[in-house]
Design goal:
This protein is mostly helical. The protein contains 12 helices and no strands. The radius of gyration is 21 Å and the shape is globular.
Length: 334
């Protein structure tokens, strides 16, 4: 299924290069990245989650990202090395995919898929596929609005700020995936509430210094990483970082509560609301305030959906201590 998805993506890219001449100068770069992207077909994080082997998966991820960063610092010397930079940056995901695949094959072997079972597998996987699609759209679709509004330069500025944001919250995603794997073994509502309390507490404990501190260093961080071309975009980075919180809440409540209760349709509905309101907000916000307006629109959509998913999840929590959890934000604010 992943192989078919990869072939579909490459086909869509080929049509884009054919129909949009402005993309053609980037054909060689995208094709190189597509070859690297093929290795993501091998990634088996889902298996680590099912077996509760997230420590090993996070170790694989850390090794891959460290190797990628080290090679970038060694070999990328100037702007002419853009293709090399892109290759080395994606090499982390490529290596991660190979390591997790090696673990899966070593553990279970490699049984050949049967075409007769494909239909039932596709139907059973469709709700989970929608979750992934909506998740990717909520993380990436604002770049398309940025390009539509500001051209390739606008998309580059926005994507740079977004890349920094994703890097900052990567550990939060690891925390989320670890607690998700542990939630599989939780049976009663009291234990579920306690488990979820610790999950939320640790997540906010990590995020609070970033959410409040980014406003003081965002301008310096962007100019240090990307140069003077990013001067004046510190507020954009700050809004994008704040926007990561409601998205993480969406996935926290969705994965650790609704998914465990078999409420995949409700989870997808909340994600659809986030997508719809974010898309409309990004479009109108871009017309109103440029790149910053796009980020504010995305923040609005994800916030509305996070409030919605928290509301529908309350029935699965027993006397959840919201005050105790929210007080975790105070040290970060100070």
């Amino acid at each position: 299924l992943r192989l078919l998805h990869f072939m579909l993506v490459v086909t869509v890219l080929a049509f884009l290069f054919y129909w949009i001449p402005g993309y053609r100068p980037y054909f060689s770069l995208v094709m190189v990245l597509s070859v690297l992207g093929f290795t993501t077909v091998l990634e088996t994080l889902w298996l680590h989650s099912a077996l509760q082997k997230l420590t090993l998966a996070n170790l694989f991820l850390g090794v891959s990202r460290f190797a990628s960063l080290a090679l970038i610092l060694i070999f990328v010397q100037n702007p002419d090395d853009s293709i090399l930079f892109a290759v080395l940056m994606l090499m982390a995901q490529s290596l991660y995919g190979r390591l997790t695949c090696f673990f899966a094959v070593k553990t279970f072997g490699f049984p050949k898929p049967k075409l007769s079972e494909l239909k039932s597998v596709c139907l059973g996987a469709s709700p989970f596929s929608l979750i992934i699609i909506f998740g990717i759209l909520l993380e990436r679709m604002d770049v398309f609005f940025a390009e539509s509004l500001g051209g390739l330069a606008g998309a580059g500025i926005y994507a740079g700020c977004l890349r920094v944001t994703h890097s900052l919250i990567q550990i939060a995603n690891s925390i989320l995936s670890t607690f998700f794997s542990e939630m599989v073994g939780v049976k009663d509502q009291s234990s579920q509430t306690e488990h979820f309390k610790w999950s939320s507490w640790i997540l906010l404990l990590f995020l609070s210094p970033i959410l409040f501190g980014v406003w003081f260093v965002s301008e310096d961080v962007l100019q240090f990483l990307f140069g003077n071309a990013f001067a004046g975009y510190g507020t954009l980075l700050g809004v994008l970082v704040v926007g990561s919180l409601p998205l993480l809440l969406l996935h926290t409540f969705g994965q650790q509560l609704l998914m465990m209760q078999g409420r995949l349709r409700t989870y997808n509905l909340c994600l659809f609301v986030a997508f719809l309101v974010s898309a409309l907000g990004a479009y109108w916000g871009g017309q109103w305030a440029g790149l910053l307006g796009i980020a504010v629109g995305m923040l609005l959509g994800k916030s509305v959906a996070s409030v919605l998913i928290i509301s529908v999840s309350q029935k699965y929590l027993e006397n959840f201590p919201w005050g105790e959890v929210l007080r975790t934000l105070v040290p970060g604010a100070l």
